[in-house]
Amino acid sequence: MKLYFYGADRAVTGSCHCVSINGKHILIDCGLQQGRDELDNTMLPFAANEIDYVLVTHAHIDHSGRLPLLVKQGFQGEIITTRLTARLLEIMLLDSANIQESDAEYLNRKGERAGREKIEPLYTTADAEAAIQYIRPCDYHDTLELCEGVEVTFTDAGHLLGSASITMVLTEGDVMKTVVFSGDIGNETQPILCAPELLKHADYVLMESTYGNRNHEGEWNYEGRLAQIIDETLKAGGNVIIPSFAVGRAQELLYFIRRIKDQGLVKSVPDFPVYIDSPLAKAATSIFCGDVRGYVDEESLALSTDDRHMFSFTNLHMVESGEESKQLNADPTPKVIISASGMCDAGRIRHHLKHNLWRYNCTVIFVGYQVPGTLGRRIIDGAESVKLFGEEVAVRAKIVNFKGLSAHADHDHLVGWVQSFDPKPERVFVVHGDEDIAPAFAEELRGLGFTADAPMFTACFDLARGVELENGYMPERRKTEARRRADVIYTKLVGAAEELLYFIKGSKGMPNKDMASLTSQIHALLEKWK
């Protein structure tokens, strides 16, 4: 009866853990590493054909994005998740595969000119379609007899449509242990979804800590602030660009914009055009508008039975083709564009940033966590320019970061969630948090009377005996954003010095007085910074 830590351990993305019991191996999530968390997505730290089951907490790609790779490498078991997560996975895995194929094609076009060998996509559309065939849906509170000695129950985590915490009751010999995997714990007051269910009993808890060091700013009612930004930007003749996750966050934005239009909060252009530029977001919205009984709060359920449904308003446009997407930037009409990806590292949003970031009258609104190392994080951290499609683009648009608009529980709600267990678990494993946040949150929990730690990658724990078998290690990650920015600034400094030297070498013949003055200024500058 062992627990292995294979991803999102002192990291935010790439969630993947494994329970080994009675000769069976059960993965909990198999997510894609993103941003600076990315090590090598092609390398699974286990043999895919030895995995018997995968339990998926929710459909976000950092929890599900390597399922097609798992199948590609030999997995032939069952993928079990909630009914609506199963529906979302059908569209999200295919979309992810399309991105993998497109990225490989783009890199190969560039590489061919440079004489580099071709690269293969991480997985293909065929791999994603194969993975979908292994999915077995269930509903909240169904108790599944997974295999010998394993009972599994999914409960609402309140993070995304269909998201779940997973309770596993494990029996091996005469030892029985209950293990809870939190998944991503939802923000208690977000719209559409129900609040996370509080669980009462567990011997072991493995919980996320994305916001383990901070609370969300402000309240969830962003209608007034969002309406003000839209009003001011459209009045100035600019566009409002919103990078957004296509599943979950895009639907929340539509929910808010419907309410803004219902209340007439935008005065300059009351019936302003809104474009959802993401086929994935369109497909996901249709799932949100389907049979969501048992998965959304009462207000949203009532709206979903209304003829208008909860995302319906005038002048809303769903963009399908790439050509239609390009035309949005050719059209001078001020508009709101919601486009994926949420962290700006892929997808159509990069084209919209290229055409709007440099415009003073435009606004870019970030509505989700930006992982260090991503383009979105560089922008909100104050980059003066960014490179898009090989071109340097100045950042002149107004940048707004709605920090409180999050689908994750913040610090206080995380503490409240784990304190609901009575009695306290034997041990709490803190995961899914940055390498400085997860250990600090574990230390705080120890101060509250819990036995808690933040395991490292490839650590192994014996659940029956309550002892750590392997410590794991911290793999070298990509440069931190601070380090990257420091490198950029250093490069600019060296460039300025080279420019000065070039000027000096061309100054022969300058009046002696001017040369002496320049020399003294250089000496004074050096003395100041030595």
SSE-based structural type? alpha/beta
If helices are DSSP runs of H or I spanning 4 or more residues, what is the number of helices? 15
Low-confidence stretches: 478-485
Mean pLDDT: 89
Could you give the order of strands across the largest sheet?
Answer: 6-5-4-3-2-1-22-23
CATH fold-type name of the largest domain: Metallo-beta-lactamase, Chain A
Our Rg estimate from Cα atoms comes to 26 Å
CATH architecture of the largest domain: 4-Layer Sandwich
CATH class of the largest domain: Alpha Beta
Shape: globular
Note the quaternary state here: single chain
The CATH superfamily of the largest domain turns out to be Ribonuclease Z/Hydroxyacylglutathione hydrolase-like
Mind describing the biggest β-sheet? 8 strands, mixed
Task: State the distance separating the first and last CA atoms.
Answer: 60 Å
Describe this entry's structure for a reader:
Mean pLDDT is 89; it is low at 478-485. This protein starts with a strand and ends with a helix. It has 2 domains: 2-215 and 407-470, Metallo-beta-lactamase, Chain A; 223-401, Rossmann fold. It has helices at residues 61-64, 67-72, 83-114, 125-132, 223-235, 249-263, 279-288, 298-304, 322-330, 349-356, 375-380, 411-419, 437-447, 481-505, 512-529; strands at residues 2-7, 16-21, 24-28, 53-55, 78-82, 135-138, 143-147, 150-156, 164-172, 175-181, 204-208, 240-243, 274-277, 316-318, 336-339, 363-366, 385-388, 391-394, 398-401, 427-431, 452-453, 460-462, 467-470. The chain contains 15 helices and 23 strands. The strands form 4 sheets. An 8-stranded mixed sheet has the order 6-5-4-3-2-1-22-23. By secondary structure, the chain is of the alpha/beta class. Helix content is 34%, strand content 20%.
